[in-house]
User: Which sequence fits this backbone?
């Protein structure tokens, strides 16, 4: 059941991702709520329209196709909304999709559109380790977008999370693939992970919005473990037995740099690799207390849920 009790009209930007779709579905479980889902392409629009919703929920979902930097279109979409969630962001920068456009420009446009609107609160989704002075270009860009939110008059909760695992998402698919192999390779297997369940992230977003929380919250999963140990825990859930081989990060950066130099849209970049290599060590109880949430999903329960699906959503 949804935690939302009072009727609200939600504006969700970047609603077509796995987290966005899950949030939309959760919010529409509350009969009084409506959602205005903002996406940037007709393909993304079809992704939302193909969701399994009952007829009453579908009537309360509007999908708007527009540019994330179109202030007038965003202002029109926000008309009548009282809650907003900004999910727009990228992990991998390309020549056509830059961090500056995806993070700072989209956030600046949304904040300008929401100024003087009916929206009373914004939740901005970010990444653990983000800071405007970070050495990593992705984390620095997200940090700059966070600063824009904090400087704005609209009450905002910046919610920073590490690896998110959900049913049908790429991270879960990649973990399952790695844990299923007799011999798997990963860069710096000692890197610390703190995966959090996608359902818990959705609960956190809703909790922050319903409390009108004005804060920056780091929320990680209930356990910190190495990438090697996470792979082995996943293998135990799958009843597989394999060996994890750790590769040095310098090799990964060199390979990613080579791909960047020859491909317009490489499968990985140096900045992306460094974000994924970030050591995540967060006290989850602090975030849970600030948000007033129930306990987080235990790691093994999370793994059992997300690893049983072998296909990408």
Assistant:
């Amino acid at each position: 059941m949804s935690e939302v009790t009072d009727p609200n009209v939600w504006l969700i930007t970047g609603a077509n991702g796995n987290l966005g779709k899950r949030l939309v579905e959760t919010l529409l479980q509350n009969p009084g709520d409506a959602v205005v889902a903002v996406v940037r392409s007709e393909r993304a629009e079809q992704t939302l329209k193909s969701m399994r919703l009952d007829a009453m929920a579908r009537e309360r979902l509007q999908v708007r196709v527009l540019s994330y930097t179109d202030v007038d279109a965003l202002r029109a979409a926000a008309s009548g909304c009282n809650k907003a969630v900004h999910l727009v962001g990228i992990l991998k920068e390309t020549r056509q999709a830059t961090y500056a456009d995806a993070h700072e420009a989209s956030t600046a446009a949304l904040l300008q559109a929401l100024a003087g609107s009916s929206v009373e609160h914004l939740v901005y989704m970010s990444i653990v380790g983000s800071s405007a002075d970070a050495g990593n270009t992705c984390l620095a860009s997200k940090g700059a977008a966070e600063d824009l939110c904090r400087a704005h008059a609209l009450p905002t909760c910046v919610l920073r999370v590490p690896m998110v695992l959900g049913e049908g998402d790429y991270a879960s698919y990649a973990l399952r693939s790695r844990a299923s192999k007799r011999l798997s390779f990963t860069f710096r297997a000692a890197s610390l992970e703190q995966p959090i369940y996608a359902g818990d992230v959705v609960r956190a977003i809703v909790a922050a919005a319903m409390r009108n929380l004005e804060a920056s919250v780091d929320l990680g999963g209930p356990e910190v473990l190495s990438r090697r140990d996470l792979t082995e825990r996943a293998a135990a859930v799958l009843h597989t037995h394999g060996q994890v081989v750790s590769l040095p990060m310098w090799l990964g950066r060199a390979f990613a740099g080579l791909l960047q130099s020859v491909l317009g849209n490489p499968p990985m970049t140096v900045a992306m690799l460094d974000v994924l290599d970030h050591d995540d060590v967060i006290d989850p109880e602090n975030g849970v207390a600030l948000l007033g949430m129930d306990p987080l999903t235990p790691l093994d329960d999370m793994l059992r849920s997300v690893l049983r699906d072998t296909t990408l959503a």
About this structure: The chain has a mean pLDDT of 93. The CA atoms of residues 37 and 63 lie 5 Å apart.
